[in-house]
């Protein structure tokens, strides 16, 4: 080893006497490939973490769309490499067809190609096409009206004063003997029953089970960019309603009073049932089964049953 090489290499005793952060920094000096390859120095570790965060940070910001007509809003989103995933009608004093708000809201940073839901104005006071439906099942086997009067008196008693056979009269306007019939209501056929994990800023089609489809979405799971509160948003005109920790039954959801308002999702306990009317007019019971944290934020775990229409 030459004298110059000996001078460049620190003595082991001197290295041990240096503070730990100085010893970590030596990793930078000994590495000829820089920070990202070795990452042994303290500064190198910080630089690698900062580089990873920068690379994985969403690059596209949702523009301000309120007041724009749908076509103009879609054009601005395309310019930002974003797409319209769904449109939801919302009563407003703005001109019909203009954007009331977006979800995620303006200023939210998203990955290229991410979807945005537009809430389009409809005349204030207009109600969704479906707010509640009552399904009545007609009992089967109920007795019809009794027979009318017969053509004349029936035959008289048979032979013998006692114990002999007799024939009951069927005419002469005699009413039928009252009868009681007990029926069991027919169960409503199930259209789809499954479970799914819905990520933040995504939605599900409760008719087909499709995840974040380009059309046909029924229930959206989002987060407010300012308050960071999570919410569920019905996407179909029939709306949704929280009915509590109850058994997910057809009758419960078929008669629930629904609306198109957002449903706060932060405090919904496990087991809560949300009734949703799908865009194809079917009632669906969505049950919250839990949450988890993923790379893109919180995930909502649900199972749901969608019934056929009567």
Secondary structure topology:
Layout: H1 3-8, H2 12-17, H3 20-30, H4 35-38, H5 42-56, E1 60-61, H6 70-79, E2 83-92, E3 99-103, E4 109-110, E5 115-123, E6 190-199, E7 202-204, E8 219-223, E9 230-234, E10 240-244, H7 250-254, E11 263-264, E12 273-277, E13 283-294, E14 297-307
Structure description:
This protein is of the alpha+beta class and 310 residues long. It has helices spanning 3-8, 12-17, 20-30, 35-38, 42-56, 70-79, 250-254, and strands spanning 60-61, 83-92, 99-103, 109-110, 115-123, 190-199, 202-204, 219-223, 230-234, 240-244, 263-264, 273-277, 283-294, 297-307. The chain has three domains: 3-56, no CATH class; 60-123, Trypsin Inhibitor V, Chain A, CATH 3.30.10.20; 190-307, no CATH class. Strands 6-14-13-12-10 form a five-stranded antiparallel sheet. The longest helix is centred in the N-terminal third of the chain and has 15 residues, at 42-56. The protein is globular. It starts with a helix and ends with a strand. The model is unreliable at 25-40 and 127-171 (pLDDT under 50). The chain crosses the membrane at residues 26-54. Residues 56-122 form the PASTA domain.
Compact summary:
InterPro entries: PASTA_dom (IPR005543). The protein contains seven helices and 14 strands.
């Amino acid at each position: 080893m030459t004298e110059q090489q000996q001078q460049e290499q620190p003595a082991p005793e001197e290295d041990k006497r240096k503070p730990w952060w100085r010893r970590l920094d030596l990793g930078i000096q000994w590495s000829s490939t820089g920070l990202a390859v070795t990452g042994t120095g303290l500064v190198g570790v910080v630089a690698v973490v900062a580089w990873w965060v920068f690379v994985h940070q969403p690059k596209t910001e949702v523009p301000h769309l309120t007041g724009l007509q749908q076509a103009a809003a879609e054009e601005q989103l395309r310019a930002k490499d974003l797409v319209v995933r769904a449109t939801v009608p919302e009563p407003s004093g703005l001109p019909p067809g203009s954007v009331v708000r977006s979800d995620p809201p303006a200023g939210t940073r998203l990955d290229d190609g991410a979807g945005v839901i537009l809430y389009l104005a409809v005349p204030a006071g207009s109600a969704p096409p479906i707010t509640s439906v009552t399904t009545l099942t007609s009992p089967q086997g109920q007795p019809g009206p009794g027979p009318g009067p017969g053509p004349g008196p029936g035959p008289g008693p048979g032979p013998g004063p006692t114990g002999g056979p007799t024939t009951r009269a069927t005419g002469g306007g005699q009413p039928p003997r009252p009868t009681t019939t007990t029926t069991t209501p027919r169960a409503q056929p199930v259209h789809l029953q499954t479970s799914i994990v819905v990520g933040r800023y995504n939605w599900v089609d409760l008719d087909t089970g499709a995840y974040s489809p380009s059309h046909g979405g029924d229930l959206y799971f989002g987060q407010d960019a300012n308050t960071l509160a999570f919410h569920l948003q019905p996407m179909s005109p029939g709306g949704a309603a929280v009915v509590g920790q109850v058994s997910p039954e057809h009758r419960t959801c078929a008669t629930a009073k629904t609306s198109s308002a957002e449903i706060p999702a932060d405090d919904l306990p496990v087991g809560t049932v949300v009734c949703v009317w799908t865009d194809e007019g079917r009632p669906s019971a969505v049950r919250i089964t839990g949450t988890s944290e993923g790379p893109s934020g919180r995930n909502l775990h649900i199972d749901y049953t969608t019934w056929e229409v009567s």
